[in-house]
Design a protein that fits this description.
Layout (H helix, E strand, L loop, with lengths): L6 E6 L6 H17 L12 E7 L3 E4 L5 E6 L2 H6 L2 E4 L3 H5 L4 H13 L2 E5 L3 H6 L7 E2 L6 H7 L4 E2 L5 E4 L2 E4 L4 H14 L1 H10 L15 H6 L4 H4 L1 H7 L7 H7 L4 H12 L3 H19 L4 H7 L5 H12 L3 H8 L1 H4 L1
Parallel strand pairs: 1-2, 1-5, 2-4, 5-6, 6-10, 7-8
Antiparallel strand pairs: 3-4, 9-10
Helix pairs in contact: 1-7, 1-8, 7-8, 12-13
């Protein structure tokens, strides 16, 4: 493709589709196109051309009742398509067993440079066999069900988005914007992606490997009321030494009973849970403040900045300084 030619992005939706699944990425790509313009030279944007498409084309009514006009995803449109993204919603879930949709998706996947899904847009892709043998993600509520029905798919249910070669899949709803920003960065570099994030007032773009939920939020949803409040207690006093014995005492249990019930409720050990809370607090400080790394390390309970660097890189695959440059408030505010 010539540098002067825009990439055509097709977002496929369905009757009773989720509007935000389609509109979020659409707006991100459109913003990238506008920001790539050079008004002083009279040059319009040339990054992307975005198409909202459906199997039959024409007017669709989305799940929230809003009518939208779509193009027909036919051979002519596919021939121009660089990237095909399948948006989710009830209509996409209903298409999981539709042979016509499967044929169209297989035809498109064989011709486009890359393809993927937003949220439950992975249902028709899974039904068409296009996720078999691949790593993928989707809405957290549906990944377990899909994994049982399609055991050849290697799901990463907690990720914001996942790339496996030419396949890109994202988690639910607004994660489609994170996916679009990642695609923009892959095509045009990090600066344009950051400019788009600023334009959309999207705060602190999330890396694909980040959890769909914070550790604190996930902890508050456990059934055991005593354990559910531990996250807040630890988060307020991260510098302190949270041993199993001390945590057990805080909820009035014996250490043995506490360790067993904690593992049943959280699916992890107390030490790993505390470590995740500390890492999330450090990440938030890097995003929201200009504090030196040594100060962040102390207040988050790491002891030294070197320990923070090592554990941060192990978890997020990026150094704290690089993370701050990419996602810090001074870049995205």
């Amino acid at each position: 493709m010539s540098k002067s030619e825009p990439r055509h992005i097709v977002i496929l939706t369905f009757p009773d589709g989720l509007l935000l699944d389609a509109a979020g990425p659409l707006e991100a790509f459109d913003a990238a196109d506008r920001l790539s313009a050079e008004p002083a030279n009279g040059r319009p944007g040339n990054a992307y051309r975005v198409h909202l498409a459906s199997v039959a084309g024409g007017m669709l009514r989305m799940s929230n009742g809003v009518p939208v006009m779509t193009e027909k995803l036919d051979a002519r449109l596919i021939a121009r398509t660089d990237t095909l993204l399948v948006a989710g919603g009830p209509g996409a879930r209903a298409a999981i067993g539709d042979p016509q949709v499967h044929r169209l998706l297989r035809q498109a996947a064989a011709k486009v440079r890359r393809f993927g899904s937003v949220c439950t847009g992975n249902f028709p892709l899974a039904g068409a066999g296009l996720l078999d043998g691949k790593r993928a993600t989707g809405h957290w509520r549906s990944c377990g069900w899909l994994a049982k029905r399609f055991p050849k798919i290697r799901f990463t249910p907690d990720a914001i988005y996942v790339r496996d070669g030419h396949l890109w899949t994202s988690a639910g709803v607004t994660a489609g914007i994170d996916l679009a920003l990642a695609l923009i960065e892959a095509d045009h570099g990090g600066q344009l992606a950051l400019d788009v994030a600023k334009s959309l007032v999207v705060y602190a773009r999330r890396a694909g490997g980040q959890s769909q939920f914070s550790t604190l939020l996930a902890g508050q949803s456990v059934a055991d009321a005593k354990l559910a409040q531990l996250g807040n207690l630890i988060r307020q006093r991260l510098k302190e030494n949270w041993t199993v014995e001390r945590l057990a005492d805080a909820v009035g249990m014996s250490p043995r009973s506490f360790a067993r019930r904690f593992a049943e409720s959280f699916g992890t050990t107390p030490a790993q849970y505390v470590a995740r809370l500390r890492l999330e607090a450090a990440r938030a400080a890097l995003e929201q403040t200009r504090q030196p790394l040594k100060q962040i390390a102390r207040q988050c309970g790491f002891g030294s900045d070197e320990t923070l660097r090592r554990r941060f890189h192990q978890s997020f695959r990026v150094a704290p300084a690089d993370y701050r440059r990419r996602f810090g408030r001074q870049k995205t505010a």
